[in-house]
Amino acid sequence: MPFQIFSLREVDLIKEYSKWKDVAKQIRNILNQVEGKGFKNLQKWKIYLDKELALVLEKQYINSLDSLHLYLPEIYVDLTYRNLNLEYSPPEEQLKNIYEQQLKRFLDTPLSFRGISDDDTVFKEITERNGEALKNVSKHTNELFDQLRKVIEHWKSWIQLESLDITKLTSWQHWDIHFRASKTFGQETAKLSSTEERVGCFVISLSRLRSDLESHNRSYWDQLIYSLKDSIAQDVVKLQDYINHSTSALTRQPLTIEEIGESGAVHKNILEEAPMVG
């Protein structure tokens, strides 16, 4: 049985915790069978085995603290683009709650671990002895979420197509610039990988980001189309008003010498009032 405990030195406490429980259960079952055959007073032997088990558990526990943020069960998250903001789904606050729940589950391992005897004191003392080492866990947690924020900052620098202010579109050159920008953005988005990024135990999917950016670009393009159509319609109205006014003035027959003199000024005004379109 000590060999079974000894073998746990090579068993990862984070990834293979079930094996630890299985070994303890196997030893308990063997001792129960021994007791069932009439052998009593095994309490000292059980306590001895618990101490041996606690030594191995404590070593693995301490070794795991520095890499805990990397090897906790994976937490899946989407990077999204909504209302011109890059954000995680679930949001960061919720991710932190999920992470801390998993973190606590591991940190409480010595407190919840069932050994061989009914006395779990030897396991509970593990956390009491390692308070200093546990402080590093908080440090790693802060660093991990800093890295998550840096991922968002990285993608912010990549996204250059922002909201469209159609009031600033006043000439065909403006529309041309924005149509070209939208086309380039679409081409770059098409190259965007739909794979994942990993930050510690967080697995960040980029699929929704790509979908959101494509949707944003379609909306951007549609706004350009609608604003251009509206601008053309307004120019048509201006031209029609100008044509109607000019035609009326040009077809009016001067009847007096005074009107003949004024006709030159009318023609000049028509030329000066020609609307600027496009």
From TrEMBL:
Gene Ontology BP terms: microtubule-based movement
InterPro entries according to UniProt: DHC (IPR026983)
GO molecular-function terms, A-Z: dynein intermediate chain binding; dynein light intermediate chain binding
Any single Gene Ontology cellular-component annotation: dynein complex
Protein name as annotated: Dynein heavy chain linker domain-containing protein
Organism: Acanthoscelides obtectus (Bean weevil)
